[in-house]
Automatic annotation (TrEMBL):
Belongs to the ABC transporter superfamily. Transmembrane segments: none annotated. SUPFAM superfamilies: P-loop containing nucleoside triphosphate hydrolases. GO terms for molecular function: ATP binding; ATP hydrolysis activity. The keyword ATP-binding applies. This is ABC transporter ATP-binding protein. Keywords: ATP-binding, Nucleotide-binding, Transport. Residues 6-234 form the ABC transporter domain.
Length: 307
């Protein structure tokens, strides 16, 4: 059984002499929310456009539900709903009228599909308000309604909270979560706002300068960034033996040639220091640490933060 809703293999996009997406390997698992995190200009939108066939892939490939999109467009794209950049609608038509046009273009034949999609995003059905009078938040909601109109298995959402006020952001987040948890949708969502991705995603990909620097489940990221005691010792390999044999510690990581992270923060550092001294191992320093996701992002990207 195919594990991934989306998988890219060394997917690359080159414009002239500029490589904007460089050999990206995404793995978006079925039924989960994958957050593509990166600063503006990192290449997030370009990746989504390549998956959707809106821009060509220079090299590499993109697979959706195990099928290469090239040559399988008619089988693949009806299973996808998408909102890329700011949704574009006919300004002189109402939201319902716009969706009626897109439904006909897409061939959506499900009864009440338009009303159901508008209900899901909290917009009125058959009202008289023209799209030219919509706020940005309403246009974002209408964009989502258009994306789910044909009840797709996969959603690709580019910065869906962009321009929304705090209440609108929370509503959009809850809506996306419900699509995944209650309706089983596979969702690829991009953002430059780390805190939003942290509250939304099951899995995270960190994109920087067109390169996917890291892929991880959010649970793994949290584990990496929880509170810990960092000790610096003269001989970490022998120190680990002491920690395991004398203190029964199993939750630890060797970070570099001299540092060990201890995730059991209730340990007695004085007792550890004494035990290490008896083994002729110097405890150079110890400190309580708590890295945030922002700290992790900076470390992965070489010191650059994110909004």
């Amino acid at each position: 059984m195919e594990r991934y809703g989306i998988e890219t293999r060394n997917m690359t996009k080159v414009y002239g002499e500029q490589t904007v997406v460089n050999q990206v390997n995404l793995h978006v698992q079925k039924g989960r929310i994958y957050g593509l995190l990166g600063r503006n200009g990192a290449g997030k939108t370009t990746i989504m456009k390549m998956i959707l066939g809106l821009t060509s892939i220079t090299s590499g490939e993109a697979l959706v539900f195990g099928k290469n999109i090239k040559g399988n467009e008619r089988r693949v794209y009806p299973r996808i709903g998408a909102m890329i950049e700011t949704p574009g609608f006919y300004p002189n038509l109402t939201g319902t009228e716009n969706l009626e046009i897109f439904a006909r273009l897409r061939g959506t034949a499900r009864p009440n599909a338009i009303k159901e999609a508008l209900d899901v995003v909290g917009l009125p059905y058959r009202d008289k308000k023209l799209c030219s009078k919509y706020s940005l938040g309403m246009k974002q909601r209408l964009g989502i309604a258009n994306a789910i109109l044909h009840d797709p298995e996969l959603l690709i959402l580019d910065e869906p909270t962009n321009g929304l006020d705090p209440i609108g952001i929370a509503e959009m987040r809850n809506f996306i979560l419900s699509l995944s948890k209650e309706r089983g949708k596979t969702i690829l969502v991009s953002s430059h706002i780390l805190s939003e991705i942290a509250m939304l995603a099951d899995d995270i990909g960190i994109l920087h300068g067109g390169v996917l620097l890291e892929e991880s489940s959010f649970a793994e990221l949290e584990r990496k960034n929880r509170k810990y005691i960092q000790i610096q010792v003269s001989d970490p390999k022998r120190a680990i033996l002491v920690l395991e044999q004398q203190f029964g510690l199993q939750q630890y990581e060797i970070e570099d040639d001299a540092c060990i992270r201890l995730y059991d923060t209730d340990v007695d550092i004085a007792a550890i220091n004494k035990a290490l001294m008896l083994e002729d191992i110097a405890l150079i320093s110890s400190q309580m640490c708590s890295d945030s996701l922002e700290d992790h992002f900076k470390k992965v990207t070489g010191g650059e933060g994110i909004a």
